[in-house]
Amino acid sequence: MLIKNKIYILLLIAFSAASCAKLDENPRSFIPSDQFYKTQADAVAAVNAVYSLLNAGSTGVQTPYNILLNTGMDFMADDVGPGPGATNPDVRSQAVLGHSSTGLRVLQLWQQHYAAIKKANIAIDTIPHITFDATLNKRLVAEARFLRALYYFNLVRLYGDVPLVLHSLNSINLSDQQIARTPVAAVYTQIEADLAAAVVDLPNSYAAADLGRATAGAANALLAKVYLTERKWALAVTQAEAVINGPYGYDLFSNYADVFLPASENGKEHIFSAQFKSNSGGQGNDEAPRSVYTGIPGVQGNYANQVVFYSVPDATKPGGTDKFFSIYKLYTANDKRKRGSFVTRFLSPSTNLYYGKLNDASIPNDSIPFFNKYYDPSVASNESESGANVPIIRFAEILLIHAEAENELNGPTGKAYTSINRVRTRAGLTGLSGLTQADFRDAVYLERRLELVFEYQRWFDLIREKDAAGNGILETSLLKVGKTNVSKGAKGKFYLYPIPQQEIDNSNGKLSQNPGW
C-alpha cells in the first residue's frame, strides 16, 4: 500500500539523520516551514509524516499504536498486563499503579503525541499556501486536522488540561514555546471543530494506493466517540447514526476473526486503522511477538503481554478458589470472539506440533490464553513483521457507541437493542431484551470489553464509564483484580496521568501538576 511505503521512507530518512549526526543544540538560524514546503509532493510528505507517528517502529522508540498505548496505558488496566518478557522495571511498576510523574511511559506518551501534533500543525499552516490541485490541497489539510484531533483526544483523556498548540512554533526561543495548560472543555471544542471541518473535505473512500488514509466516515465516527466521551448523548446518537446510515458502506464482517487478518485489512468494518505491512523494511506490527509464548520452534515470541490473572471463588477448583481467572473466562463458551481474540496453543511451522502452557499442573485443562489479534501466521518466524493492522475505530464500536448513547438518552429503546444485538449476533450470542436502563448500561460496558479487548480501549473506558449512581468504575474494577495501589493517595488520583515532571522542569515552566501527583 502506497501510504505505508511513503511513510516508511520518511521515517528512514528521519531516523538515519538522527542517528548519524551529532547536532549543535544551540541553533543560530531557523528555516520556517513555509520556506521549506513548496510543492504538491512536499505537501503529501508533510501529511504522511503525521500518519507515521501513529505507529512508526524503530529500535528504542515506541509510538502510540505500536506498543506505547499498551505498555503506557493498557498494562494499568484489568485485562492486559506485563508478561515475563516485559522486563522494564518502570513499566512493571506502572502496571500496578506504582508509577510517578517521572515515569518513562508517562513522558513518552506526552512527547510522542506532541511530536505528531507539531507535524500536523506544520501541514495545516503550510499546505494552503502551496499551489496545486485545490481538492487535493483541501483533502490533505483535512487529513492533518483529523489526525490532530485524534492525538489531542488521546492527550485530553489521559492528562486532562493540556497545552493547546494549533500553529507551528517558529521561534527558537524556549520562552516563546512555553504554553500554559488549556482547560479540557476548550480542548474538546477544538477537537470537535477539527473533525467537523475534516468531514467536509475528506472523501468517503480512496483508490487502492491511498487505502488507510482518513475518510469522511472516519471523521464522523471519531466525532461520535468524542461526543460519547463528553457525555453529549444526543449528539453522540446523531453522529453515530450518520455513520451507520451514511454513504460509507460500513458493516460487520460475518466472521469476527477476519477483523484482524492482514488479508482482510481496510475492509468494510475498518473505519480507521494504524497501518502495518510485513516484510517491508520494518513496517511490521511489533506487538505481535509480545503475545506469543517463548521457546516454540520456528515461532518468534517473547511473551511480554499476558492476560491479567486474579482470584475468584470457585468451588470446582482446589481450595475453592480459581487463581487464574481472567477476561478469557468472561466469555461464554459459544462466544466466537473468545476464539478470535485468544489462542491457548501455537502451531510450530518447524515441527508441525502444537505448543501451549498450563497454568498449574494441579488444575487440569486450565491453559494460559494468549492474545491473538495481531499474530500473523505468514511471518511466524519473525512476528515483528506482522502485517496485522491495529483498529483505531471500527464499525462494531460505532454500533456500541450508538447503543450506549441511546440508552443514556432515552433508556433501552428499540434502536439501542438493534445496535447492541448486531454485535452480539455476529459473536454467536442471543439478542438482549427486557433490560432496565442500568442493566443495559452494564451490558453494553461488558460488550465493549469483550469486543474490543487488546485494542487499546480498556483504560479509556475505565476512566469514562460510570455506574448507575454516577460514580466512576476505575477503582472498583482495579481492586477486583488485586491492584490495591489504586486506593492510595488522593481520591480520583488515577483518573488522570501526571504531567511529566521532566516537561515542567526542563521544557515548559508554565505547566502545573495534576492533583495527587
Task: Characterise the protein shown here.
The structure is a single chain. β7 (345-347) and β8 form a beta hairpin. The chain has a two-stranded antiparallel sheet with strand order 1-3. It has helices at residues 2-20, 33-36, 40-55, 68-71, 89-95, 104-126, 134-159, 184-201, 216-229, 233-244, 336-341, 395-410, 414-426, 437-451, 458-464, 474-480, 501-506, and strands at residues 80-82, 270-274, 305-307, 310-313, 321-325, 342-343, 345-347, 354-356, 370-371, 390-394. The chain is globular. It has 517 residues and is mainly α. The chain contains 17 helices and 10 strands. It has 3 domains: 1-18 and 30-202 and 483-517, Serine Threonine Protein Phosphatase 5, Tetratricopeptide repeat (Alpha Horseshoe), CATH 1.25.40; 217-283 and 391-451, Serine Threonine Protein Phosphatase 5, Tetratricopeptide repeat, CATH 1.25.40.390; 288-385, no CATH class.
SSE blueprint:
Blueprint: H1 2-20, H2 33-36, H3 40-55, H4 68-71, E1 80-82, H5 89-95, H6 104-126, H7 134-159, H8 184-201, H9 216-229, H10 233-244, E2 270-274, E3 305-307, E4 310-313, E5 321-325, H11 336-341, E6 342-343, E7 345-347, E8 354-356, E9 370-371, E10 390-394, H12 395-410, H13 414-426, H14 437-451, H15 458-464, H16 474-480, H17 501-506
Antiparallel strand pairs: 1-3, 2-10, 4-5, 6-9, 7-8
Task: Please indicate the percent range of residues in DSSP E strands (runs of 2 or more).
Answer: 5-15%
Shape: globular
Gap from first CA to last CA: 44 Å
Number of domains: 3
Order of strands in the sheet with the most strands? 1-3
Approximate helicity band: 40-55%
The count of strands amounts to 10
Return the CATH architecture of the largest domain: Alpha Horseshoe
* Nearest-integer average pLDDT: 91
Total of helices? 17
**Unreliable spans:** 5-31
Assigned CATH class of the largest domain: Mainly Alpha
Structural class: mainly alpha
Rg from alpha-carbon coordinates: 23 Å
Order of helices and strands: HHHHEHHHHHHEEEEHEEEEEHHHHHH
CATH fold descriptor of the largest domain: Serine Threonine Protein Phosphatase 5, Tetratricopeptide repeat
